[in-house]
Amino acid sequence: MKDINNSDVEKMLLTGKSIDELIQMKIQQDYKALQEKAKNVPKIRKIENISDVSKNLLFSKSSVFKVFNKINGTESLVNGVQAEAMLGMQETVRDALLAGKINAFISGDSYVEFMYAKTTV
Q1: Which helix (H) or strand (E) holds 6?
Q2: Are strands 110-120 and 63-69 parallel, antiparallel or unpaired?
Q3: What is the pLDDT of residue 1?
Q4: Beta strands in the chain (DSSP E)
Q5: Average pLDDT over the chain, rounded to whole?
Q6: How would DSSP label each residue in 26-47?
Q7: Which of 24, 49, 52, 57 is the most interior residue, by most CB within 10 Å?
Q8: Rounded to whole angstroms, how far apart are CA atoms 87 and 76?
Q9: CA geometry: angle at 51 spanning 54 and 58, to 5°?
Q10: 5-47 pLDDT per residue, tens
C-alpha cells in the first residue's frame, strides 16, 4: 500500500464527501495500482541444461531436482538447497555438478537428477 502525503489527505477531506465515500475512493485507487502492478509481471525463463545454469542458481530454491528412491520406487521433487544437502561430503560430485559435467548423482538409496532452474529475464 502506498503512503499518502498530507496534501492528498487534505484534498480528500476538503471535497465534502463522507468517510464512506473517501474509503471507497481509496480502495479504488489501491485496486488500480494493483492492476498496474499485475500487468508488469516479470518473464521467467526455464533452463533445462545444467551447463547453462549459473553456479549461484544451481543450489538455490529456484532449481528443481528429481529424486528417485531405489528401495520404494517413488519419485519426488526437491529444490536445489535440499539437493545440495543430499550431496553431503561428496565434494567431487558437487564440483562436477557446478561445472555442468554431470546432471545426476547417487546419495544413499536415492538417485538425484537435475530437472530445471527458473530465472527472471
Answers
A1: helix 6-14
A2: antiparallel
A3: 46
A4: 44-47, 63-69, 74-79, 104-107, 110-120
A5: 89
A6: HHHHHHHHHHHHHHTPPPEEEE
A7: 57
A8: 16
A9: 40
A10: 667 667 766 776 777 887 888 899 999 988 888 888 888 999 9
Give strand pairing partners of 110. Answer: 69, 107
Q: Cell numbers 529444490 label which residue?
A: 79
What percentage of the chain carries pLDDT values higher than 70? Answer: 88
- Dihedral sign for Cα 53, 57, 59, 60, please: negative
Report domain extents, the chain: 6-39, 45-120
pLDDT digits (tens, 9 = 90+) for 88-105: 999 999 999 999 999 999
Q: In the predicted model, what is the mean pLDDT of residues 55-74? A: 95
- Is the separation of the CB atoms in 119 and 45 below 8 Å? yes
Choose among 4, 111, 116, 107: nearest CA to 68.
Answer: 111
Look at residue 12 in the predicted model and tell me its pLDDT: 65
The confidence score (pLDDT) of residue 83 equals 95
